[in-house]
Amino acid sequence: MYWEKELEILERKSLERLQLERLAKTLGQAAKSPYYGRFPEIVRFVQSGMKAIEQIRELPFTSKEDLRNNFPWGLLAADKKDVVRLHSSSGTTGNPTVVYHNRHDLDSWANLMARSMYAAGVRDTDIFQNICGYGLFTGGLGFQYGAEKLGCLSIPAGAGNSLRQIKLMRDFGTSVAHVIPSYLGRLFEVFKDEGLDPRKDTKLHTLVIGAEPHTQEHRLRIEEMFGVKAYNSFGLSEMNGPGVAFECTEQNGLHIWEDAFVVEIIDPVTLQPVADGEVGELVMTTLDRQAMPVIRFRTRDLTRFLPGACPCGRTHRRIERISGRSDDMFIMKGCNVFPMQIEGVLMKLPEVGDDYRILLDTIDEQDEMIVEVEVRQEWFKGDLAFLDRLQRHITRLVRDEVLVRPLIRLVEPGSIPKAEGKAVRVLDRRKK
Ligand code: COA
Ligand code: AMP
Ligand code: ZN
């Protein structure tokens, strides 16, 4: 029933005591980093201790901006020789955000992943296929080490190449797969093109879906298409990656692992806690990380705590599926995109005019990002070969920046519709 019974069903009072103990250690560790060591509030708590977990509200928030401004080593709290891995994701513009791990951190993360997958019913008898980007994306190695710790036979398939994904599933009898939900429509189409039905022609019984927002209706459609149970997996690189919050087999919200994180939900405008059960921005503090503790990280993800106890017996609170963001980031094919990144690329080019527009659409069951770019009149009148070269050049620059290939449409100046005098930057028409 549980991966770590004593921690997963810990009575709330004991869980809070454990949080307080771990927070004291975390603050002591964080204060060793050049960045956090500068905050008198942190140093004060390191010296005099914290009496109740609510006092965390006296500590400063950390934003993606802070991580980027202190790139690359500012938040590192350990000796570089003890750090064994980093993960990095792109920021709005300029420096990426980087998270460092020592061996303890990686073990702790793998354990949270194993715990999460176990809660969703995955067992060591399962054959697990990870259809997700490896490399710097945390979903690759994060799920990989978790599945190995759990004891599954794991297939590190990576993203892309749908035909090979299906062959792997059929050759080895994959029973569980981790997949980004928006890709499952495309995968299903390829099954159909091959004359196959995943319900009959695979041994899949469980899908773990996450890394991007999706609705309950989308989940039900996925369950129907593949004949499986699909469980929501939530995480973010700054808090390791996946393994932060996960659905148990009750499918009634995501348990957020409170022995590993302090969780707050705040009003993104007033920065004060919202009333219990109200939607706000998730703020998280690591409790079991040594190389790079992060304090009160503003995730920008909007959610709320769900009331009541879960029939599974786990005492860690549940959050509702993520309902939006308090910034303008969107996720395309599992890659985070800030419109400013695209603007940054376009505005460096002398041929590009004043306006651009990002259209997100589902074409043949595959999500695509179309970027309409106004070209200055003198260039727009240029020959077709020139425009073709410009289009390919912009495609490459945007792809290098956001990691997905955009469809670039070059358009005449003034042709992008304006909303109240301003160009509408992102239009999301994706099938949800
Ligand atoms: N996951 C897995 N495969 C995907 C995918 C996704 N989210 N989105 C598209 N693909 C597949 C496509 O279907 C295509 O394979 P096929 O033609 O055999 O069906 C292949 O990847 C390339 O697709 P394309 O549309 O040309 O992609 P791109 O160049 O714009 O992007 C990806 C390349 C998909 C590899 C890149 O976006 C990626 O790595 N996405 C996954 C990110 C991820 O894992 N995020 C989780 C972080 S925790
Ligand atoms: P990254 O740091 O690149 O792993 O991206 C993390 C972000 O992906 C989160 O802050 C969320 O916005 C989004 N995300 C991850 N998992 C989910 C999920 N299950 N539902 C909705 N959004 C998610
Ligand atoms: Zn539960």
Sequence-ordered SSE layout with sheet pairings:
Layout: H1 5-8, H2 12-30, H3 40-48, H4 64-69, E1 83-89, E2 97-102, H5 103-119, E3 127-131, H6 138-150, E4 153-155, H7 162-172, E5 176-179, H8 181-193, H9 198-201, E6 206-210, H10 216-226, E7 229-236, E8 241-247, E9 254-256, E10 261-266, E11 280-286, E12 297-303, E13 305-306, E14 318-319, E15 324-325, E16 330-332, E17 335-337, H11 339-346, E18 352-363, E19 366-375, H12 377-380, H13 384-402, E20 407-411, E21 418-419, E22 422-423, E23 426-428
Parallel strand pairs: 3-4, 3-5, 5-6, 6-7, 18-23, 19-20
Antiparallel strand pairs: 1-2, 7-8, 8-9, 9-14, 10-11, 11-12, 12-15, 13-14, 16-17, 18-19, 21-22
Bound molecules: coenzyme A, adenosine monophosphate (AMP) and zinc ion.
Domain AMP-dependent ligase C-terminal: 334-430
GO molecular function: nucleotide binding; phenylacetate-CoA ligase activity
EC number: 6.2.1.30
